[in-house]
Amino acid sequence: MATVGPEDTAATAARKMWDCDCGALPIVDGGNKVIGMITDRDICMAAMHRDAAPSAFRCADAMSKRIFTVTETDSLSTAEQLMRDNQVRRLPVVDADGQARGILSLADVVRATELGAGPSKPISSNDVTSTMARIVARPDGLGVSH
Asked: Which fold would CATH assign to domain 1-67?
């Protein structure tokens, strides 16, 4: 699993995202504990607001510090509800010690739902649709955010 540290440049994060074909990375401390998340959009917006290249600022300057995690033993329905409640598309997966183990994306939840795999409480297509609608809703309630 790819991660970056808070002192890495945003360019380092962007390169890892490109190499791993992903749009988000956990930011971990020296003990591999998740302290934030950074997305390709976070990097673009930080670069635009700073009028600077991603090599000119650190991941800590662009990362989301408000993070939500799931454990390796949490059900998909628990993860899906956390995504819905907090309007996030990706959740870092941590072990019992809080160390990063992976990322669970909404796409993973959709695939598992389609395959009928996973939790003891099945996730319905309506649940997934509702979660997707909630995630993309604008905070002002006026439609889809971009």
From this structure: CBS-domain (3.10.580)
